[in-house]
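Table S2 (continued). Query chain:
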Amino acid sequence: MLVFYVGARSRVLVFAVAVLMLVSFAVSAIGSVAEDGLGSAILSAAGVGRNAIAAVTSGSRLVPIYCVARDDRVCAVTVDATWGDDKTMALLDLFDRHGLKVTFFLAGHWIKSYPDKVREIASRGHELGNHSWTHPHMSALSRDKIRDELERTQQAIADLVGKRPAVFRPPFGDYSNTVITVAQECGLRTIQWSVDSLDWKDLSAAQIRERVMKRVRPGAIILFHNAGKNSVEALDWIIRDLKTDGYVMLPVSELLLDGETYIDRSTGEQRSVEPRTPVPGTGIRETPDRRPAVDSPGPL
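Corresponding output:
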């Protein structure tokens, strides 16, 4: 047996090292509890969602919803309205002809300039989404500024149609943990897209059609704009093609999954939390992995 004689100063040093090790262990244990136990319940009670809990406890980034894990052939068409208005009525008439409901994401400038169109979109049964007030790079703003951007748009839309949006699309696809968290506090889910039509680049209708149809998968969220030069003609083709392929097109909020869900951080895909099943002979429960159901670009 080896015996070490430690002087007074050395005893202090050893004690300090032991305390640091205990603190490190405690922090690690608390992190585990917070992600899968009492801490999770406490954060949930405070209004923080499952993905926010994971980000807080693991230090990872939150991501918006880019697409949805759906086994049925459904997708969502979304239209951003920020500046112009040239194609809005033509789009609404097109959607009526096809019996289609979509989601329009509206920015503050557009709401102020075209209040009658905001009412018209809502009266035809389409979903209205929040696209910020001044169309800034949201991740560059303070928490208070982010909240102001969202709440001004929420209130403006509610004043016109009597209902606050439930979904938010950040301008330029620009987001941060704070943006997503504040949006959630405002009652908004942050939505991106998995299929970009690039109609704002004035591609031909045929080019847009080919681009979109190559990328659509069940659960896809497709991005269009209300002022795209060839958006109406391209969408007419695309809607017909999707129907031929057996797709149903829904507003974003109807495409999203109910119940307990999470967002895959590598794909941005919203998925259901699958029930854990016991591993034979171990008493451990595991959640089987699920491969992404759609071809999404992942977080940008």
